[in-house]
Amino acid sequence: MGLKSIRAKVTSLTLFGIIIAVMTSALLGIAVIKRTGDKYAEQSLMLLCETGEKNLDYYFNSVEQSVINVQAYVEADLKSLDKKDLPEHLERVRGFFNRTMGATNGALTYYYRIDPEASDTVKGFWYTNLDGTGFTEREVTDITLYDTSNTDELVWFTVPKNTGRPIWLPPYVTDNLDVRVISYNVPVYLGSEFIGVIGIEIDCSTMRNQVDNIRLYEDGYAFITDDSGNLVYHPFIDTDEGADAESLKISEALTKDDEIIRYTYNGVQKEAVWKQLHNGMRLTVSVPESATNKLWHDLMVQNILVMILLMTMFILLATRLTGHIVAPLHRLTNAVSKLSSDSFDFSLDYNAEDEVGILTRTFRKLSEHLKLYITAVESDYRSIYRVDLDADRAVCYRSDDQYKEYYDLNGISGSFRDMSHRYAEKYVSEPDREGILAFLDPENIRSSLSSGSSISYRYQTAENKYEMIRIIDLSKAEGQNDGGIHTVEIGLSDVDRETREELIKNHALSDALSHAREASAAKTSFLNSMSHEIRTPMNAIIGYNDIALKDQTLSEETRGHLEKIKAAAAHLLTLINNILDMGHIESGRMTLKSENFRFGDLLKQVNTMIGAQCESKEITYICEINGNENDFYTGDDMKLKQILINILSNAVKYTPADGTVIFTAEEAARFEDKVTLRFVIRDTGIGMDKDFIPKLFEPFAQEECQCGGMFGSTGLGMAITRSMIDMMNGKIEVESEKGKGSVFTVTVTLKTNPDAGISAEDTQSGCGEKKTETSDAELTGRHILMAEDMLINAEILKNILESFGMEVDHAPDGKACLDMFSESSAGRYDAILMDIRMPVMNGLEAAEAIRSLDREDARTIPIIAMTANAFDDDVKLSLQAGMNAHLTKPVEAPRLIETLQKLIK
Fold first, then answer.
1. Bridge pairing between strands 807-811 and 783-787
2. Distances in Å between the alpha carbon of 668 and those of 544, 635, 676, 797?
């Protein structure tokens, strides 16, 4: 039965495939044949219509040309002719008429009619050739009987007269001749005066003969219509004047502009093509669709017959081949059946190179690998159970002899709950006993396996060894597809060595983390200490150097040496700041502030600093601002300013004298409460190699150059700049060319702060002008209390303050500063300069103690931190202690004086 079933399926599938393939090929062939036949018929119909159009137009053009030739001759003879000489003129042109128009193919009559308004005596002439023996003159039409201003009457005469243009008239029966003709008429002028009409009438039979020759297939024909859709000539419809007007009207479908028109006439489906003739008429060629389809119908029948023959041959061949395919498939099916029963007792010897042979060899390898895999998996477990959760029955499939003393490995079957409790009580350590019983609870097993195919639990045995229980859901594998968990496999394995190795690794990782944290804290402490220790002597160097430079008696050489010392100290301070910034960045302690600032203030500070640098180096500095300088934003303006100054300072540094630095700030985009700012810095400096640009933002990366500077750099400036921009989720782009300069583009997104802008506007008076701001305080005569434990620093500060006319009292530590202030009279001191690191009492403690004193000026006196502690955290601590400002050593005299002027009231 299995053989027949496989053979039936293979045969049916093969036959189905053959039938589908043959039918698809037949349908595609029919479609191609039909499309080709239709296209051939359409092209033939179009070509025939175009040929007929050219032939008819050629004939009508020859008629027009004969009339135009006569018109030219007549008007030439009329030149400089008096109207009284019209009779002689008429006699001269008779012969030319006969030679030219009489020789025109199909000409039935020709005439030259003089307008009665031009001459009431000379009428013209009219010649006819009805019997084909020659033209004879007849009496001309009496035009005086008609209203020549009405173009609906005597059309052949009135239309040329009133329009001044030639006209083709559709077929009509000539007066008194009873012959159907078409005519072409042109006006004749003497100068600008209308003289008459020259015309020729063509026998319609000439046109009919040409139209009748236009035929495609046996039932095809052509016909002529006017521009209104009325039949002029049709080979099967009477178009004489006596015909019914309705019958002369063609189908509306034939007036469409489609390339191929399909319509129904007398119940017959037809295809037609029409072309506009030169004289305004339309030539239409029509054929029945049955005639155009006959060719592809015949080809289609032949194609179907061939396909049927091929399909019959394929079916017979397929039936024979299925028998050869079924035999190895049947053997393969038996092998699969045995494998599903956990039996490997089968042999597969089919090794052909066809698909069945490949499948047989693959299955043979798969069964071998599966056998090895099962053996390997079983070796990982010391015992394996099959548990029926519904029946609470556990059966041991496999046990290890070395664990035969264990109750659960005796190969017996029993209650799963009872076996679980006995095993936990006897072999599991007491701390894990409750946990493993909860894990082996059938409800817990069902709940846990509902979200995964396996679960596991690690525990310690009574012998202090680590073991693991792994549970796998077997319900679906055994055909139970109701979604429930009914049957599971439980394996017990020894994981003592792996667990202990993992514990050792985790302990090592924990120790490493602890050491890393200690190292980070030590690094931070070192940076803080180094910052303070380096800045303290730097303060003395810079301070005494500034004092020395004030001496007007210095020689130029000595002043030059001092200026170089000042530059070296400033460079060293920059290096210290860069190193500290990199330390902050690497340790993750650098954070962004979120403060309100005015865009214009930030740009002013940047321009002041960079403008001075450019001026001293004789570089042209241009700042272009495309936006509102009065806008307020929320962000870290200090770091944004540092970013811009870093890039601009580099541009100044690497741009030679007479060069240019251009700084452009603009608002690139705005959406809701976000605004994107773009800063572009261009310079005409030395530029960089293309290969160096990707390395520009790496720490300590420097390109060799001859920039002419006194000192080099750490190569940290651009790395710090890039890190700050990344913290702001911004972007920096660089373009540079050696010897031509560089372009840096920085893009950052900030929050807008319209409320801050409104607050600023509140400082304006009612008339729209800003209120006058309070001027900076006058410092002469002010009394300053200075707390500084380093005598050198104290001497420098005292010198600076006294040079501005201030009086200074010195306290050697925080406790002395507190005592001096508390013992002074209220209002004696105008400000306090407070060092942070001092013996006895540090500056933070002293500031807090002063603010807590019970006197009015203790809460209002400005307290300014003067310290070598330069980190953001140090600034926060100063402000939290009640100080008004935080100045970092080495203190710059202008900044110190500016701060005092702003804070002293």
1. parallel
2. 47, 17, 5, 46
Classify residue 832 as left (phi > 0), alpha (psi -120 to 50) or beta. Answer: beta
Query: One-letter amino acid identity for 128?
Result: T
For residue 55, what are its two tokens?
């032939």
In total, the chain counts a number of residues equal to 905
CB 791 within 8 A of CB 799: no
Report pLDDT digits (tens) over 572-604. 666 566 566 555 555 555 667 778 888 888 888
Strands 124-128 and 136-138: antiparallel
Phi, psi at residue 603, to the nearest 5°? -65, -35
DSSP 3-state assignment of 821?
A: helix
DSSP tag of 386: E
> Is-contact 635 592, C-beta < 8 A?
yes
Neighbours of 101 (CB within 10 A): 23
Predicted model pTM:
0.35
116: cis peptide before it, omega within 30°?
no
Q: Collapse the DSSP code of 847 into the 3-class scheme (helix H, G, I; strand E, B; otherwise coil) and give the result.
A: helix
The candidate with the shortest Cα–Cα distance to 181, out of 49, 63, 97, 58, is 63
Q: What is the DSSP string of 593-646?
A: --EEEEHHHHHHHHHHHHHHHHHHHT-EEEEEEES-TT-EEEE-HHHHHHHHHH
What is the token pair recorded at 395?
């059966």
In sequence order, the 6+-apart residues with CB closer than 8 A to the CB of 376 are: none
User: What is the spatial distance between Cα 116 and Cα 743, in angstroms, rounded to a whole number?
Assistant: 91
Beta-carbon-side half-sphere exposure of residue 202 (alpha carbons within 13 Å): 27
Residue type, 846: A
Helical packing angle, 289-340 and 2-78, nearest 10°:
150
Query: Among 297-306, 512-521, 813-822, where is mean pLDDT lowest?
Result: 512-521
DSSP state letters, 394-417: EEEEEE-GGGTTSGGGSS-EEEHH
Beta bridge partners of 126: 111, 138
Token digits for 627? 């936006």
How many other C-beta atoms can be found within 10 angstroms of the C-beta atom of residue 253?
A: 14
Q: 């004969």: which residue's tokens?
A: 66
Give the pLDDT confidence of 845-878 residue by residue, as tens digits. Answer: 999 999 999 988 998 999 999 887 666 677 888 8
Joined tokens for residue 301: 């029948």
Q: How far apart are CA 401 and CA 411, in angstroms?
A: 11
Burial of 752 (0-12, 13-18, 19+ CB in 10 A): middle
Phi, psi of 237, rounded to the nearest 5 degrees: -130, 135
Rounded to whole angstroms, the Cα distance separating 224 from 282 reads 6
CA dihedral angle for residue 763, residue 769, residue 771, residue 776, rounded to 10 degrees: 110
Residue ranges of alpha helices (H) inside 762-866 are: 791-803, 814-823, 843-851, 856-860
CB neighbour list of residue 787: distance below 8 Å, 6 or more residues apart:
811, 812, 813, 814, 816, 817, 832, 833, 834, 835, 838, 843, 846
Q: How many Cα neighbours within 13 Å face the side chain of 695? A: 11
Residue whose entry in the numeric block shows the structure tokens 């310290």: 867
- Dist. CA 656–CA 705, nearest whole Å: 13
3-class SS at 810?
Answer: strand
End-to-end CA distance of the chain: 111
